[in-house]
Design the sequence.
């Protein structure tokens, strides 16, 4: 913790300790790139044989500060491509990102405006000096959002070569997801009984109920006999709407419409309702209080809207 207080004070202590508990810390394998500002290095988790590629971006201030840091897991057979990008890559990414936005973004007029804005910046040479993949992705995200004001819209970069898109995820990706959910307990961090018959539930994302449904059911059943419930979503960044529906069902006695998702390309609208059945006792007569923060996002903001606070 001394390191983070000195070099990365904006990091949240809970996130750091949770992550360390999952991986057991890291052993340094090798330094891949060491310059005055970016440092790239290879790590191995102490709790497994998995490796990861990490990078520290260091300021030239006195004392120096880590302005950004990241750790990228290296899956079986995955190739490391590094963080450096060139002009051809920048042009290809801009064209591909704008094409995807034109095809899928929910508001076609806003999509056109985003594309025009980014192409204008490219024409002015605003991206010409950007040689780091993450920095470029962050810039594109910022510039698309300047037009759309949509925090769901982002451009991401991976220094690890990603598999080709397919209709269904490969078995190793499914296995990796299951392992990741086991390590994080499907996002459920704390479930307990407080004094006065008050239940407390803290979970940090909505995972796929096909993998994590049993964990959610166990958490809600542990709280079955409380007289009031506190749901802590202060670190919840959303996730699968089907898990939102599963958890929400415990809060209602009758079928309740939660939200709709419309897909522009197909024109299809998918409705989300509470489920007709969940194992265990519902908390439909119990007052529910939802804690949120500036970090609560997406599906994490749906639950306060549909619950009974």
Sequence:
């Amino acid at each position: 913790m001394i390191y983070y207080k000195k070099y990365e004070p904006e990091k949240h202590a809970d996130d750091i300790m949770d992550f360390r508990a999952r991986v057991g810390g890291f052993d340094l394998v090798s330094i891949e790139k060491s310059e005055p500002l970016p440092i790239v290095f290879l790590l191995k988790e102490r709790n497994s044989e998995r490796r990861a590629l990490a990078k520290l971006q260091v300021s030239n201030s006195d004392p120096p500060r880590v302005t950004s840091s990241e750790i990228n897991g290296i899956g079986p057979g995955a190739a490391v491509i590094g963080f450096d990008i060139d002009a051809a890559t920048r042009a290809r990414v801009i064209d591909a990102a704008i094409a995807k936005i034109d095809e899928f973004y929910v508001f076609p007029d806003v999509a056109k405006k985003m594309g025009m804005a980014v192409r204008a910046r490219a024409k002015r040479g605003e991206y010409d000096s950007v040689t780091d993949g993450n920095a470029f992705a962050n810039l594109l995200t910022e510039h698309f959002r300047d037009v759309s004001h949509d925090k769901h819209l982002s451009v991401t970069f991976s220094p690890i070569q990603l598999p080709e898109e397919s209709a269904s995820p490969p078995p190793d990706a499914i296995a990796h997801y299951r392992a990741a959910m086991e390590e994080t307990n499907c996002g459920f961090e704390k479930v307990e009984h407080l004094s006065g018959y008050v239940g407390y539930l803290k979970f940090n994302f909505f995972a796929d109920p096909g993998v994590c449904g049993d964990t959610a059911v166990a958490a809600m059943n542990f709280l079955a006999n409380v007289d009031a419930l506190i749901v802590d979503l202060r670190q919840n960044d959303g996730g699968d709407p089907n898990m939102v529906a599963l958890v929400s069902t415990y809060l209602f006695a009758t079928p309740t419409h939660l939200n709709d998702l419309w897909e522009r390309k197909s024109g299809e609208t998918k409705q989300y309702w509470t489920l007709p059945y969940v194992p265990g006792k519902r908390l439909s007569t119990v007052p529910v209080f939802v804690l949120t923060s500036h970090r609560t996002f997406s599906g994490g903001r749906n639950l306060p809207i549909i619950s009974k606070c």
Observations:
- The chain has three domains: 2-74, 87-148, 186-306.
- The radius of gyration is 22 Å.
- The longest strand covers residues 26-34.
- Confidence is low (pLDDT under 50) at residues 304-309.
